[in-house]
Amino acid sequence: MERVSIRYVLASDLDGTLADGSEQARQELIDWLQARADARLVYVTGRTPESARRLMERASLPAPDVLIADVGTTVLAGPALEPIEPIEAAIEREWPGTDVVRSRLAPMESLRLQDVDASRRVSWWIEPVRQQRGTADDPFAARPPDDASMQADAARIARQVGAEAVDRLASLPVDAVVSANVFLDVLPRGVNKGSTLLRVLNWLGAERDSCVVAGDSLNDLALFTTGLRGIVVGNCEPALAERVSGMSHIYRAREAGADGVLEGLRHHGWLDELRDAADGEGDAHGRQ
Q1: What is the value of pTM for the model shown?
Q2: Same structural domain for residues 32 and 73?
């Protein structure tokens, strides 16, 4: 059987992005992707695989072709979502070990270790900000831009905690990533959502210009700095909006969640049959 050439790869975050917004927009997008043999769907999330599966069920999202989980340190594919072993093995070689990472940050009273099962990253709550967050059934769910945890005071706390963590980890081959002012993830140096997505595109045999990425928080910044075309949804973390300002390959959507993804894909030339409905939506080059 002749192998189908891949023309479209949507690589999207879940929380605050594809799993949020209207069900109508989400279904419209999924229907379009599933109708095309030359399209692939990749979820790129900070959640563990099991947590991502639960969210997919709640949001009525289909299983992806590839799941990049644990902030880029876990990679699964196929109907059963099994590990892509060459990619995971390469990431494993970069990880100095969970115990040594935990020990470096253990003295920080502003951090609370997250109870997540992940072998190539360690994650903490930034506790003073976590206590400011609005309540939700799912503690990992994205909060709206007007939530107390998204305001200037929370951002200041997150910057201070992140800077101290970086200092304490300086001698280890790791990166510390703060997002939504409340999550601190420590990852193997150079490994993130973006670097792992590039490995996945190579594994799929897909050209980079076939891919559009979408996200809403600072741990998605690594997707946008790959040079791939991107969509920052309207409900994004303010710090992400600041960091992508001026990036000509990034579209700032007005709409939130899946509606913003749909809006951005129209801008990037996908969904041509829906283009007429998109006249006047958004603008390019980092809308302020």
Answers
A1: 0.91
A2: yes
User: In the structure encoding, which two tokens stand for residue 159, read together?
Assistant: 């910057």
User: Residue type at 75?
Assistant: V
Count of structural domains within the chain: 2
The verdict on 201 and 278 lying in the same domain is: yes
- Tell me the C-alpha distance between 278 and 133, whole Å: 34
Neighbours of 227 (CB within 10 A): 12
Rounded Cα–Cα distance for residues 62 and 26 (Å): 11
Across 247-278, b (16+ Cβ under 10 Å) vs e yields: bebbbbbebbbbbbbbbbbbbeebbeeeeeee
pLDDT at 114 over 80: yes
Same domain, 152 and 201: no
**Cβ–Cβ < 8 Å for 77, 67:** yes
Query: In sequence order, what are the residues at sequence separation of 6 or more whose Cβ sits closer than 8 angstroms to the Cβ of residue 218?
Result: 177, 178, 179, 180, 237, 239, 240, 243
> For 223-254, what is each residue's pLDDT tens digit?
999 999 999 999 999 999 999 999 999 999 99
Domain of 106, in residue numbers: 96-188
